[in-house]
Each structure stands twice: as structure tokens, then as C-alpha cells.
Amino acid sequence: MIVAERKPIAELTSRLAPYRRILVVGCNTCVAVCSAGGAKEVAVTSALLRIALGREHPETRVDETCVERQCEVEMNAELAPSLGNYEVILSMACGVGVQTLAEQFNTAVVIPALNTKFMGRPEGLGEWSERCAGCGNCVLERYAGVCPITRCSKNLLNGPCGGSANGRCEVDPERLPCAWQLIYDRWVALGQLDRYLTNEPAKDWSSSLHGGPRRIQREDIR
Amino acid sequence: MKPYLVLGCDRSASRALADLCRTGYVLPDEVEYRTLPCSGSLDVLYILRAFEQGFERVLVLSCNDDACRSLDGSRRAAQRSARARTLLSEVGVNPRCVSFRQISPTMAADLCIWLDEFVQPLPAEAEPEKAE
Question: Could you give the CA distance from residue A16 to residue A26 in angstroms, rounded to a whole number?
């Protein structure tokens, strides 16, 4: 899922300072699961904004709502009738949701409330880690299911480097396991340690964002 | 509007308060007391909404560790009170405006002292030391 976190309230209040009618719009999908932009976080952020903005301008109105998926125009259609009541939309979705609202309602001011961080998974309560960089050409099969692009601090496709010690990464030994130790352990568990010796050629990054904005078209379902 | 809000667990704080009131104690005029069925039901939003409504300070009273009938309620109340302090400090509210204490039904005398302290003005915050 897409993992995000809320921007500091001071940053939001400075962006929202010129406005008196604000609609906070959450998204009930990825950012709700990572406790950044679902209904609960929308309520908390709105309460904080009312306290902060209401001090100087008690007439400031901060309303809140949530859509199921802000990245889909059909789901945002329910917002249309009420948008005339607001000067600005504070979107608590990932960057995709923010852009969808801005495109869909092109006369509305849309401000992002979240910093979109990465594609990842929950590690436990209140902790998420990156697992996929969306490189567009998945090589997980060659690395025993451990992605060296996201999990190795140096993104090494042939590793490990000299900074791996006791299974930990020199960049942050407390928090980070060495991805290449994980790959080694997996090959051992799979009984395919010989694959560890395969030298990977340089990766073609043209399928990643470096190759320009990406788009998928499926004629069969259009 | 009363400026001070006490959120107390039904199993401990409310019983201690009832005990205290039987001695003739009257809750200070500026304090509103609300009972929580369990302090574990406390939500960060309860505290934020209180400040939104105009309360100036909130005191959360939860059961002692290991005395919570919901097992984890006291720990959750402590966590959420701490979270509320962090969030409120983001919008310039003194985090000491949210207090958290643990209490048992037999601690009426302690509750009396805490309520007296609760309605006293907060001590001025220490000025950060200036670098030479």
C-alpha cells in the first residue's frame, strides 16, 4: 500500500491562513490503513486546525469528509455539490488523490496535507517499511523475494557491500537488516545457494520513473 | 462554560469521587467531571474536542496498572493522553494542559489533593537558556 504521513500542523496552518472556509477531505484506502489520512485522522487534523486557525479568525470554518478512494474520479463525484461552499480543499490523500481532485475540480484550490512516503507494508502497530520502488521491471525472483532496490541502503544489485556486519547494515545497524544477508538466508532456506553466485548485469531503468511518466493501457478492458 | 474537564474511569475515579463527596466535598465550580466507562475508551479526539469547545485543561484519571478490568485500558489511556499532548503542542497549546493520573477507588484523599492542584494556574514555563 501507499504509506504517507501528515505534514506538521504549522505548515498546514501557514498554507491555509488566507482561507476561511476549508474542507478537509480524507481517503479511506491506503492512507487510512497507515493512519495518515482516513476518517480518524481527518477528524484529528480538523480539530487541530479549528483550534489553531480559530484563535485569530474565529469565523474560520473547517468541515470534514472522507471518500472511499480519492484517486478515482467516480468516488470523488459526491464532493461536487458542496464544493461551492469552500475556498480550499485540504486533501488528506496521497499525491495521486491530491492530483485527482485538482484535475477533477479545476477551479478548486487543493492543498496536500500529507507527505507521500513510499509503497510498503506494516511491520507492526504504528510502523511501516518500504518494500517496492515501482521500478517497472520486477526482479524479485532473482533475489529470493527480497528487493535489493528498496531494502539495500545502497540499492546494490550485486552484493553485499563491505558495510554488512553481523547481518546488519552499516547505515543504521539498529534498524536495518542487511538486505543481502536476507537474500543469502533465503537462498539457503530454499536450497538454492548457488544462485547467490549469479552476477546480475546492469539494470535497465527505462521502465522506472527515470524513463519518464508511465502509463498502462489495457485495450481488453477499455 | 467551565474551564477544567476531568475524564475519570467509572471503575476507579468515579468511585473515589463518590467516596470523597460523601465526606461533604464539593467539586470546584470550574471543574466539569465526565465518567468514562473505561479509561481505555478514551480517544485522542475526546481531548482535542474538549479544547475545541473551550476547556483550558483536561485531567484524565485511569485505574492503576494491573487493576484495569479491560487489562490494557490504563496503558491505552496513558498513550492517548501523551498523543493528545503532542498534538496540542503542535498548535501552541501547553502540553501540561493535559494531565494523566492513575487512581484506585480507595484514593479519595489523593483525588482531593489532585483536584485542588488541577485548578491552580500552571507554573510558568522555564525560559530556554540562551546560548552565550
Answer: 17
In a domain, B17, yes or no: yes
Q: Which of A10, A44, A51 lies closest to B45 in CB terms?
A: A44
How confident is the model over A104-125, as a mean pLDDT?
96
Cβ separation of B48 and A48 shorter than 8 Å?
yes
ipTM of the complex as predicted: 0.85
pLDDT reported for residue B123: 76
* Residue where one domain finishes, among candidates A94, A118, A142: A118
Measure CA A193 to chain center. 34
Confidence of residue A73 (pLDDT cuts 50, 70, 90): very high
pLDDT surpassing 90 at residue A77: yes
Range of the domain at B64: 4-118
Nearest to B44 among A9, A44, A54 (CB): A44
Question: B131 lies in a domain?
Answer: no
Per-residue confidence at B38, pLDDT binned at 50, 70, 90?
very high
Between the alpha carbon of residue A102 and those of residues B11, B69, B104, the distances in Å are 50, 49, 54
From chain B, the residues in CB contact with A26 under 8 A are none
Give one DSSP letter per residue of B41-70, joined into a string. G--HHHHHHHHHHT--EEEEEEEPTT--TT
Last residue within a domain, chosen from A92, A118, A144:
A118
pLDDT value for B126:
58
Residue A127 located in a structural domain: no
β pairing state of A164-165 and A168-169: antiparallel
